[in-house]
């Protein structure tokens, strides 16, 4: 059981909840802060104080005073009117992360919601009742208003959810699990939807996948080095320490570890003096991607524990401030950095694929074909990889440099962070397929070299890979192999390869 406090939630804990079946609960201390914050809201309403979103309308309507008898209608109207999301729903793990993150933010005790709101959110997490939330429609600045409104609809019994593999009305799932929908009181609709949890949830899931992929890229490229009889000297520790980037040093160390007992690597001058950059510069390129991913991790773990709604309530209600913590710029930048980092891992992987299949660049059978000419082998796999990395280059265009005014120009600068997070997710899926193609080609190449000469670690990867994708003995429908290999890369237990994967980086 993971106890949420509104602070200290980690990506490792998110992974345990989303994929490990871990349950969550709220800390008693945090709930006390929530109660005090709620008492402050009740006083504001009873005293008729003019406070944005509590006794006023929203956005451009912030100057419209709302009578206390209308506060419930105000909050429900907010949710209904803002639930304008369109497009395909967010993946289930992303939507579940959204619910968890919103509960954690409210537990900070600055939002003025009742404990029952948080309790209901946590019931959704623990019972795997996941709101259906359309992906498109957020500008990423006034909070993720449209996506989070669909989350709120589920809470009040008007939305849809995924439950036990089915899509249904939230009320139906609630009845099965004995959960009561909530009636929103003053500030609560705004407290639920005014936040960055859509972009952050997508970022969390994207980061967890990108981190797994980054480690796998080093394993797969190590096998490629063997398939191309690569020069191991380029990974010598002294080279990387001389430059000083820790991520580069670590990448080189892992590759040396993977290839430590390989009989397929060579020394400089043995077959050639230098390898091409896509082999020789793996630590420099992959290490730079790790630098960006480390930045992304840092920003996500801050945002996961941030109060991002508006207004925020301090000093038992004596200080209620309208600010802009809902603005997604920090996460927008982080998502754009993650897009670039993962796109580059795919770019260099595609170049290694080319070196594996191009007879002008190696001494292997052309296109790794069992019968060159009669059978095309891996020829078109490289086409697919090239198409995917080219698509990634378009998706990697930074979303955060764009802005467009909204709410009659009251909200005149926005982050587009949710768009950035969605594009990052697409890039990761494309990159995984590119690396799957490299794995298929690398396995074929080491077969020609001699599997018995492989390093212990890479041979274990080879054996796992061959359980999924058989050796190319004749042409077949390779799209099936690519998809199977890509799916397997989602679930490889990296701890079986090296101890340092035990903890999330």
TrEMBL record:
Belongs to the PAL/histidase family. GO terms for molecular function: histidine ammonia-lyase activity. It is an enzyme of class 4 (lyase). This is Histidine ammonia-lyase. Its EC number is 4.3.1.3. Keywords: Cytoplasm, Histidine metabolism, Lyase. The modification 2,3-didehydroalanine (Ser) is found at residue 142. Pathway: Amino-acid degradation; L-histidine degradation into L-glutamate; N-formimidoyl-L-glutamate from L-histidine: step 1/3. One of its GO terms (biological process) is L-histidine catabolic process. Pfam families: Lyase_aromatic.
């Amino acid at each position: 059981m993971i106890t949420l406090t509104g602070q200290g939630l980690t990506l490792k804990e998110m992974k345990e909840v989303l994929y490990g079946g871990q349950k969550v609960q709220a800390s008693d201390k945090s709930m006390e802060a929530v109660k005090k914050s709620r008492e402050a809201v009740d006083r504001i309403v009873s005293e008729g104080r003019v406070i944005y979103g509590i006794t006023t309308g929203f956005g451009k309507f912030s100057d419209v005073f709302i009578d206390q008898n209308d506060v419930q209608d105000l909050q429900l109207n907010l949710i209904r009117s803002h639930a304008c999301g369109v497009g395909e729903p967010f993946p289930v793990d992303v939507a579940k992360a959204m619910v968890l993150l919103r509960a954690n933010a409210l537990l900070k005790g600055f939002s003025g919601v009742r404990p029952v709101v948080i309790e209901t959110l946590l019931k959704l997490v623990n019972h795997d009742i996941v709101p259906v939330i359309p992906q498109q429609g957020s500008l990423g600045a006034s909070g993720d208003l449209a996506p989070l409104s669909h989350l709120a609809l589920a809470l009040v019994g008007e939305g849809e959810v995924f439950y036990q593999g089915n899509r249904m009305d939230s009320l139906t799932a609630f009845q099965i699990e004995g959960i009561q929908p909530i009636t929103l009181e003053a500030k609560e609709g705004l407290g639920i939807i005014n936040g960055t949890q859509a972009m952050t949830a997508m970022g969390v899931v994207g980061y967890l996948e990108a981190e797994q992929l980054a480690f796998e890229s080093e394993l797969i490229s190590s096998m490629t080095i063997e398939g191309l009889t690569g020069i191991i000297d380029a990974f010598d520790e002294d080279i990387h320490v001389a430059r000083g980037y820790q991520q580069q040093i670590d990448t080189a160390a892992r590759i040396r570890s993977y290839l430590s007992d390989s009989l397929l690597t060579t020394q400089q001058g043995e077959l050639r003096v230098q390898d091409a950059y896509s082999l020789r510069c793996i630590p420099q390129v992959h290490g730079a991607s790790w630098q960006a991913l480390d930045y992304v991790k840092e920003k996500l773990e801050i945002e996961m524990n941030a109060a991002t709604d508006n207004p925020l309530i301090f000093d038992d209600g004596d200080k209620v401030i309208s600010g802009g913590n809902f603005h997604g710029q920090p996460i927008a930048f982080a998502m754009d950095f993650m897009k670039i980092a993962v796109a580059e891992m795919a770019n260099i992987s595609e170049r290694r694929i080319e070196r594996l299949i191009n007879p002008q660049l190696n001494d292997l059978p052309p296109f790794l074909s069992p019968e060159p000419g009669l059978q095309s082998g891996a020829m078109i796999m490289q086409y697919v990889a090239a198409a995917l990395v080219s698509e990634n280059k378009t998706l990697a265009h930074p979303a955060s440099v764009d802005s467009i005014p909204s709410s009659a120009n009251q909200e005149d600068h926005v982050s587009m962070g949710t768009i950035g997070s969605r594009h990052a997710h697409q890039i990761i899926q494309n990159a995984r397929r590119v690396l799957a193609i490299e794995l298929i080609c690398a396995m074929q190449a080491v077969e020609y070299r001699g599997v018995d000469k492989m390093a212990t670690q890479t041979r274990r990867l080879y054996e796992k890979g061959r359980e999924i994708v058989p050796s190319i003995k004749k042409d077949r429908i390779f799209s099936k192999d690519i998809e199977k290999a890509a799916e397997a890369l989602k679930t490889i237990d990296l701890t079986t390869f090296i101890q340092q994967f035990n903890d999330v980086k």
